[in-house]
Design brief:
Chain A is α/β, with parallel strands linked by helices. In chain A, strands 6-5-4-3-2-1-7-8 form an 8-stranded mixed sheet. In chain A, helix 4 links the parallel strand 2 and strand 3. The two termini of chain A are 34 Å apart. By secondary structure, chain B is an all-alpha fold. Chain B has one domain: AhpD-like. Chain B has 4 helices and no strands. The longest helix of chain B is centred in the C-terminal third of the chain and has 33 residues. Helix content of chain B is 67%, strand content 0%. Chain B is extended, with a radius of gyration of 19 Å. Classes of the chains: A alpha/beta, B mainly alpha. At the A-B interface, helix 9 of A face helix 3 of B.
Chain lengths: 352, 111
């Protein structure tokens, strides 16, 4: 398993234009498969329109203690990009002025940002945001003594914790996320349970995210949730609320894996064949905006990683204009098939 | 002409059988979809049965399809291999049980 990001390896795929070119050429250029826009047109869905903004997803930095094989952010310990104070303040201003309901903090490991705790406390005390989501990779809680009290911090700020756990067994989890990750994740889940997260008698939400450990789609979300709940309870006495299944999108490190393992064409066929028009009408870019560590705005975290800023000119958090953004044309490419396959996929799990 | 009877890409064209007989093709695919839904057996259990049968009927398309289906359903490789052994045991048992016919015939014809 790699220990370095694509960027640190100076891989061609660390160039976002190279990724976009790869996704537009080959099987999509020779007519073997329809482009995403052609597929939408075929189903009479000319374009995807933004609905009411309900989630502001803020990527506060790409640094992470893990180097997962599927990571669409290409995050890792060697990534130093982090949101500065001015941009954090600009995000708070947008939350206050636009009645944002949900803030979704992601990374990298967002907890590694030096101002993470300050930022969460500011959101809670100076805005009307109802829900603060933190996407925690779990192992960060065990990585260093200074993070051991994160469960209590989350609880004190009524944070909704959404954590990645690729599988309820050690072998698949460690293959995707690195040796020892499973045991560390279980220890972290126990700590979250200890303060009340995921327990039926508290309102502290702990959801898990499952994404396939290979070139295949996630199965039925409800069936997998049932399997996860039973196995984690029986083997480790762990409780959690919901399981979200997320499809791996063919970008960044997962695209690198698909190409290297000669699974790219078959995977794209799988995504295209599984296109679900009702999922296409509920994709997360219709109710979410993504903010990068530099403060730029994107239709989703995946477009952020491909460098596809929102269309319409005003593409920075300091120029945030909700009215203009609600009328924007969402940027689409072939990676979007990942969100419309089967039961659909979003940061909140399946959508159809 | 292709050099092999089996082409991996032909699996993707399976639905094309309806082009030459829409009525029967549609009936087959509707039936097929209904069979694999959760019922008295879970979709997960049915996937393992399908994987075992795929090996018994030695259908490479089915083996590809139900290995992938098993991965999607969170079925582990150890479970898949056990299912394959169930199929193999039945198939070898089916061959071997004919040994009784051989014994019967032998005894009938022998003094």
């Amino acid at each position: 398993m790699t220990k370095k990001s694509l960027k640190a390896r100076a891989s061609k795929l660390s160039d976002t234009q190279h990724q976009l070119d790869y996704l537009s050429n080959g099987i999509f250029k020779d007519g073997s498969l329809p482009t995403f826009k052609e597929k939408l047109t075929h189903y009479g869905l000319a374009e995807i329109q933004p609905k009411k903004l309900s989630i502001l997803q803020i990527n506060i930095g790409y640094m992470c203690n893990q180097v997962c094989a599927h990571c669409h952010v290409d995050a890792g310990p060697d990534r130093k990009e982090m949101m500065d104070q001015v941009t954090l303040e600009a995000c708070l201003k947008v939350m206050r002025e636009n009645q944002v309901e949900t803030v979704d903090l992601t990374g990298g490991a967002p907890e590694m940002h030096p101002q993470f705790r300050w930022f969460v406390a500011q959101i809670r005390s100076t805005t009307t945001v109802k829900e603060i989501i933190v996407r925690s990779n779990l192992t960060i809680i065990m990585a260093n003594k200074k993070y051991h009290d994160l469960p209590t911090f989350f609880k004190n700020n009524n944070v909704h914790v959404i954590s990645s756990l690729p599988f309820y067994k050690r072998n698949k989890t460690d293959r995707q996320r690195g040796s020892g990750v499973f045991d560390q994740s279980i220890a972290a889940l126990n700590k979250l349970n200890e303060v009340g997260y995921g327990k039926s008698d508290t309102a502290l939400e702990l959801d898990l995210v499952y994404n396939p450990s290979g070139a295949f789609l996630p199965g039925d979300q409800a069936a997998l949730e049932s399997d996860f709940k039973q196995a984690l309870k029986e083997d480790f006495d762990i409780d959690f609320n919901q399981l979200f299944t997320i499809t791996n999108l063919p970008i960044s490190r997962f695209l690198d894996y698909l190409i290297a393992s000669e699974n790219y064409e078959e995977y794209m066929h799988t995504l295209v064949d599984a296109f679900n028009p009702s999922a296409a009408q509920n994709v997360m870019c219709t109710n979410t905006l993504s903010v990068s560590w530099e403060g730029y705005l994107y239709d989703c975290d995946f477009n952020q990683m491909l460098g596809l800023k929102v269309k319409g000119g005003k593409d920075h958090i300091r120029d945030f204009n909700l009215e203009t953004l609600q009328k924007r044309e969402i940027q689409l490419s072939q990676h979007c098939y990942g969100c419309t396959a089967g039961a659909g996929s979003s940061c909140q799990g399946s959508i159809a | 002409m292709k050099k092999s009877y089996y082409q991996p890409e032909d699996l993707k064209k399976f639905s094309a059988i309806t082009e030459w007989n829409e009525t029967l093709g549609k009936k087959f695919f509707d039936y097929y979809a209904e069979v694999f839904k959760d019922g008295h057996l879970s979709a997960r259990e049915k996937s393992l049965i399908a994987l075992a049968v795929s090996h018994v009927v030695q259908c490479p398309y089915c083996i590809d399809a139900y290995t992938k289906d098993g991965l999607e359903k969170g079925i582990e490789k150890e479970e898949m291999m056990e299912a394959v052994h169930v199929g193999a045991a039945i198939k070898s048992g089916a061959a071997l049980v004919h040994g009784v016919q051989m014994m019967n015939r032998h005894d009938q014809l022998s003094m």
